[in-house]
Amino acid sequence: MPTPTPHHPVPVLETAHLWLRGYSPADLPAFVAMFQQPEFYRYLTGKPMSEEDVWSTLMRSAGHWTLRGFGFWAVEEKATGRFIGSIGFVDRKRTLEPAIGEAPEIGWVLDSAVHGKGYATEAVRAVLAWGDAHFQGARTVCLMDPANEASRRVAEKFGYREYARTTYHGEPAVLLERPAQR
């Protein structure tokens, strides 16, 4: 008989303005709507995503939590209860040069309607605190479009620095790293 895979529940994180929680099927319509906004998908997919593809994204995150003990959180605005984006860590086994290896990869994306409110900074701070405890302060990395200046500024606030330029799926990409936190 196979050994059962452990299930890792998604912890809920709270910040001044946000709840970071596991995804719910109720998040799908808002997430699909976000993936129709050029400001939202410009640095992610470069094109809108279908409901089927967005659903696969949500399911992949649930799988990360189950298999790896980490993944993405849904970002909910406390004041409105609205689902406004995603943030978290992944292990996508990306085919890249240089390879990311075992370093957890952080990423975030927020609805363009809430850009400029400091929510990305607030969410990244909470997720990195969780990650530093969960990963025993290990090095983490971030992959982004070189033109995504706003996300780059957020990453740099938390000590991420560029260590390589590469190509991912035929598009230019920059790799940033945050050294182990002791």
From TrEMBL:
Keyword Cytoplasm found: no
Entry keyword Transferase: yes
PROSITE patterns according to UniProt: GNAT
PANTHER family: GNAT FAMILY, PUTATIVE (AFU_ORTHOLOGUE AFUA_3G00765)-RELATED-RELATED, N-ACETYLTRANSFERASE DOMAIN-CONTAINING PROTEIN
Source species: Hymenobacter persicinus
Location of the N-acetyltransferase domain: 18-181
Keywords, alphabetical: Transferase
Gene3D superfamilies in UniProt: 3.40.630.30
Protein name: N-acetyltransferase
GO molecular function: acyltransferase activity, transferring groups other than amino-acyl groups
